[in-house]
Amino acid sequence: MKHLAKSGGLGVDLASAFDASPNPYVLLTPDLRIAGVNQAYLEVTGSSRDAILGRSLFAAFDSGSGAEAVENIRRVRASLEKARDTRQRDHLAVVKFAMRRRGDDGRDVLEDRYWSATHTPILDDEGEVVFLLQHTTDITELQRLRESHARPGRASAMDVMLGGAVLGRAQQVQEDNRRLETERDRLTGMFMQAPGFVCVLSGPDHVIQMHNPAYGQLVGHRDLIGKPLREALPELVGQGYYEFLDAVYATGEPHEGRASQVLLQRRPDEPLESLYLDFVYQPIRDAAGDVVGIFVQGHDVTDTRLAAERQKLMIDELNHRVKNTLATVQSIAIQTARSHVDPRTFAEGFQARLLALSHTHDLLTRSHWEGADLRDILQHETEAHGPQRVSLVGPPVALGPAAALSLGMIFHELATNAAKYGALSAPEGRVLVDWAVADQSRPVLRLSWREIDGPPTAPPARRGFGSRLIERNVRHDLAGEVKLDYANSGFSAEFSIPLHLGRAS
Q1: Residue 406: exposed, middle, or buried by beta-carbon count in 10 A (0-12, 13-18, 19+)?
Q2: What is the rounded distance in angstroms from the CA atom of residue 410 to the CA atom of residue 470?
């Protein structure tokens, strides 16, 4: 009662009036605990201040058990919470609530009583609810007298005289309101749990009245309720969405977007994020048919859109690779045919080169065509001759797909030539392959292929397909340099290949 009894005689008089009122009053905190009661309330409930002050309203009294008692408690709690949350007075026309009294045999019994209740929020200077005032009127005798004269299907004269018709209508309105509230809560629950984002905008400024968690997650969980959209989401300026909403409000025609790009600042002080949305702006009309707001509903389809873009890129890349591979096969066929007049030897050479190309494709497929390591390519093309005859020494070097294919064909030609005419054609012959990467700012692969302990070599009388393929691939496809040396002590090749070009290929 200290909050009522402010300084001065007026506050004391108000507190005295509160306590002296013949009508029962109880003052509740926002969490529905008893903060104060008047004497009439104590008399009606048969309780004392010390026994109930500070306790929850619904724990302070024994109101019986059973479904009806539970439902009555729920109705009173709902009315109090509504008054608290809306800051508006709320009424209960009729509520049945049992009270404890002393029976004729001296024992306490619960007696059903009928009440009409009004719940009034008490606000502070900032407009916040500090108390709830419950004013109840005992209408038990009126209700019982009405029931005693009730006639099925029609109201009696006594019922009308006693106000039963009015009371009955009040009860009906109360039940209708309860059903409407239940339906509203069900719809609100569906609204809040919708898998897509949902938002309700009000008025020409598109003030955000309600949104579900999915909408909050979409825009970055910021404070939105009660703000015009231009204030709540200022980053939308220049993206067309304000204008779409203005047009829907002005014309009453809905607007639909498919995979529409939007830039949102989902985290403070971080760059805008690009998202793709399917959405619809649906006008909300009042009873007169005028547009009063807009219902926003949609889904974030960013992942689907990006997946479609990746798929398109993969298809385009696949088409590009297939065309390049077919061109390579065609070149291999033409060049092999020029070097082999005999169909049998042509078939052998052509098949071997296609297998070399296939081996490199296998390596690239394992990495989803992101590239391959130089050592892996060399091992693929020389493994048939045994690791004891081919020495590979060098660091890991990542190659792009185009560079990997070109070097795969080059190493196949070198290994085939060594097996037919060079070091690998002799029992003691060996191949030494060494490589390193020079100039890290613009890295260059320097690779040496040296054949030792094989038969004497000499420059060929004419340039064959193998040497033409090597020189063309290095200079044309890899933008590098190669030097082939047919010294008597053994064949060697020195390569210099810019890696930044190979990696980008």
Answers
A1: buried
A2: 5
Residue 158: its pLDDT value, please? Answer: 42
pLDDT at 475 over 80: yes
Q: Considering only CA atoms, which of 40, 139, 160 is closest in space to residue 94?
A: 139
**Longest pairwise C-alpha distance within the chain:** 134
Q: What is the pLDDT of residues 294-339, one digit of tens each?
A: 999 999 999 888 888 777 776 665 565 555 555 555 555 655 555 5
Q: Provide the β-strand partners of residue 37.
A: 26
| Token pair for 110 | 């619960």
Residues in the chain: 505
- DSSP one-letter code for 139: -
Amino acid at 442: R
DSSP 8-state code for residue 447: E
- pLDDT tens profile 360-376: 666 666 656 567 889 99
**What is 277-332 written as a DSSP string?**
EEEEEEEEE-TTS-EEEEEEEEEE-HHHHHHHHHHHHHHHHHHHHHHHHHHHHHHH
Backbone angles phi, psi at 342, to 5 degrees: -75, 125
Contact 70, 60 (CB under 8 A): no
d(CA 399, CA 373): 6
Cα separation, 491 vs 420, in Å, equals: 13
Q: CA 442, CA 449: separation in Å to the nearest integer? A: 23
Q: Give CA separation, 372 vs 252, 265, 311, 495, in Å.
A: 59, 39, 22, 18
Mean pLDDT of 201-216: 91
Separation of alpha carbons 184 and 326, rounded Å: 66
503 pLDDT above the threshold of 50: no
Residue 8, phi then psi, degrees to nearest 5: 100, 165
The C-alpha angle 408, 409, 410, rounded to 5 degrees, equals 90
Say what the pTM is: 0.42
